Amino acid sequence: MFNFLRKWFSRKTPEAEVETRPLSPEEIQVSHQMAPLPRREIGQLVAACSQSIGRQRELNEDSLLAFTSTIAGNKSNSAFGLYIVADGMGGHQFGEVASNLAVRVVASTILRKLFTSFLDVNPKAPDQSLREIIEQAFAEAQRIIQREAPGSGTTLTVAVVIEQQVTVGHVGDSRAYLLHPGGHHEVMTRDHSLVKRLEELGHITPEEAASYPNRNVLYRAVGQGDSVDADIYTFSLAPTDYLMLCSDGLWGVVPDEKIARIVRESGTLDQACQRLVDAANEAGGPDNISVILVRWVE
Amino acid sequence: MVTQSITPPSFGDERASQRLAPGFLLANRYLIQEVIGSGGMGSVYRARDMHFPNVPRLVAVKEMINTSPDPLVRQTIVQNFEREANILATLNHPSIPKIYDYFSFENRSYLILEYIHGKDLEAIINETPGFLPEEQVLHWAIQLCDVLAYLHNHKPDPIIFRDMKPSNIMINLSGDVVLVDFGIARTFQVGQKGTMIGTEGYSPPEQYRGEATPLADIYALGATLHHALTRRDPRLEPPFSFSERPIRKINPSVSPELEAVINTALEYEPAKRYQSAEAMKEALLNVARKTGALSRLPTAATISSSAIKPLWTFKCEDEIRASPILYQGKVFIGSYDYNLYALDAINGSFVWKYPTEGGVVTRPAVYENEIFFGSEDGNLYVLNVRTGRLLWTYSTNGPVRSSPRIAEELVVFGSDDHRLYVLSIPHSRALWTFSAADAIRSTPLIAQERIYVGCESGDFYCLDLRGELKWRQQARRAITASPILVGQALYFPSLDGMLYAMEARTGWMLWRFRMAKGSITTPANAENLIFVGSADSHLYAVDIRTGREAWRFRTEHQVSGSPTVYKDAVYFGSADGMFYCLDARNGRLRWQFQTGGPITSAPLIYDDIVYIGSADHILYALLA
């Protein structure tokens, strides 16, 4: 990328001014990213997503939702985003029903409780905490799945973004990442999988984990068990960071370093999402792939 | 059997509306009395068997409502339910409920079981203050081994209970155990995103791989006993993490012998556990024979408070309720004796003092050689920091208990006259004031071109620097503490007993953490923890990302002095008169220092020296 930049900036010499060929989207975007842009008047969220059935499954059991909103005006500016990835469990047990129900139930619960208060004539923050609302949304998803598709289950990773504050609710082994500048990244969720737990306990090494036979076994899933206990974390999203939600069809197939590199080197968010899905399919596409990328720009 | 149609469920999708109502006569025989439990697929009722009209014979009615739209799924669910009935029908043991009947109507299936008078173990654990006595748990453990041995020796095939956990163990009126819920009969599919059997937290590792053997039940029994003795619910902890929570570390009254038996049951490798329920029972009996001889080990001693000698002390003429600041080698501290004192930070010697007409409970602020502080006489005072000479004052109509904060040539503070004042320092006059609903004793926070302040009415205000209200939130009681900003979120407690986390620009609540009593302390932050004191006499450390308690430390009285973080420790005083230094990561006491009166102010720590005032009139300088 730096070679490319050098090329680009060297083009800003007098001879480059003579050249008038149209710029590719990539060139435009990189210049756009790297130039010290004037600060925007309003901060906002931008997001893109992509999904693929993969190359080996006959059924897409992943579901996702991406909802981004900006309200700007004289009184105040507010950004709100809701992003969900759910990966349904197991073949004939209606994993696709479970993941779809989870996404819809959680989205409707959160939008009803949170987003409508945004649109109120006299906007007032809800009197419940985000944590409580997300807990309720997961409990509701659990209830509906047990009623509509008993025996099935799904992973569920939900990110509610208010301005630059991200709150993630999480069950299962889909993931939320923060990708920082310079290729450094953080996994913000903890997989509720047997293999991850064995790795945490030091019973197997990360290398063994990558080829462990029961890699898909979860110890926590929405729809399974008496009640669902979501991990809920809150953290802030810097303008230089990317928030990424994805199913294990991406992170289990494409190494984290490669994911970070693809995102950094892509011009736009939707390009990045498409390239991530392509990379997972090129690596064999053994599972369904879902990815959402979010940034804060100001 | 006489069948009877069941009232169809109403179209509302609430499960409650599908429940059988009290007074409903099921199958013309079982008179429903009340719901005694509910699960994912139906409820459990207590009912009276009307075939015995002259005696009130009670039964438990276990209901399963099959709502799946898919015929294949419906069939599997019914088969599982039947399997439970068939297993129970073949069993005869005092710790297993008897089955009386089994039938289905439309999409509902029912098991009629012996009604167990009593309470489940989970409820007993939760309702018992403190820990259950070891002898009690031991008694139940031996009975549970008995019933497991009975199940595991069942012919032709052993029965694996698979779901041993406190909520599936009833303790009847005689104090004996009865296992309930033989409902788990799900098989395990390899190669797909796995299903789970058993209950997370209690199940052994191999059960997640689909293996259910007698050794899995032994592990789950170990997990159940661990829960009963420690009160730590394993469903709230990572799986297989019992070794990270040694029983005796949480509950030192448990004997090492019993702990050892439970640890063996909880071995990660099945081969290292007891190889049968009989073997475990034998080990438990050995513990029971021995424990009478054991005495409690003394708890670890802490560093005695007399070991710590102050570097210096300075005595005022009345209580110190304010927090000090340090500037150019001097410590500045207000006192209830109406004075603001300037002291030499090295030796505590007196430099100057300035008398006001009221108690000084505010922490001063310094800006370009001017020192600002409020007094209960209603004034904000501005002095020359070197000489203590008065430069100017600003009068309000109530005591000033909110400490001044300075940013961008503005000084901001609140008053008991319900106003927030914003003064221009160069012009020595008010730019604007903001009318709040009640007294402002909270110290304002100025950050990101916003002013954040709490109010005794319970309101919390966010204003821009021109005085326009950006948002307002409300707690149930007063907000006397000052907020802190970490990242994009504000943290402050209220007298309503909550610690609030709010997104700073919108005022949306991220989480709230409940304490037993209210708090007036300004929180402190280190890494991923927020520290806050409470009138319930604890200092809490709350995880900033989850809003859950990381640890708590108990003092002997209210913690009304705000904590301060320095290096890897958290420092605070309590109304018990003690000043504490704790390890910030785990809350372990490093040292404590006894003062002669309650501590209600925050310490200042600089260059490894702690400055803390106490109601005993003394400002102490201690080595951090």
Q: What does this protein structure show overall?
A:
The complex is a heterodimer of chains A (298) and B (624). Chain A has 10 helices and 10 strands. Chain A has 298 residues and is of the alpha+beta class. In chain A, the strands form 2 sheets. Chain A has a 5-stranded antiparallel β-sheet with strand order 1-10-9-6-7. Chain A has a 5-stranded antiparallel β-sheet with strand order 2-3-4-5-8, covered by helices on one side. In chain A, helix 4 (95-118) runs antiparallel to helix 5 (130-148) and helix 9 runs antiparallel to helix 10. Chain A is globular, with a radius of gyration of 21 Å. Chain A starts with a helix and ends with a strand. Chain B is α+β, with helices and mostly antiparallel strands. In chain B, helix 4 (134-152) runs antiparallel to helix 9, helix 6 packs antiparallel against helix 8 and helix 8 (256-265) packs antiparallel against helix 9 (277-290). Chain B is elongated and about 95 Å long. Chain B has 3 domains: 15-114, Phosphorylase Kinase, domain 1; 119-187 and 196-290, Transferase(Phosphotransferase) domain 1 (Transferase(Phosphotransferase), domain 1, Orthogonal Bundle), CATH 1.10.510; 305-623, 7 Propeller (Methylamine Dehydrogenase, Chain H), CATH 2.130.10. In chain B, strands 1-2-3-4-6-5 form a 6-stranded antiparallel β-sheet, with helices on one face. Chain B has a 4-stranded antiparallel β-sheet with strand order 10-41-40-39, with no helix packed on it. At the A-B interface, helix 5, helix 6 and strand 8 of A face helix 2, strand 26, strand 29 and strand 30 of B.
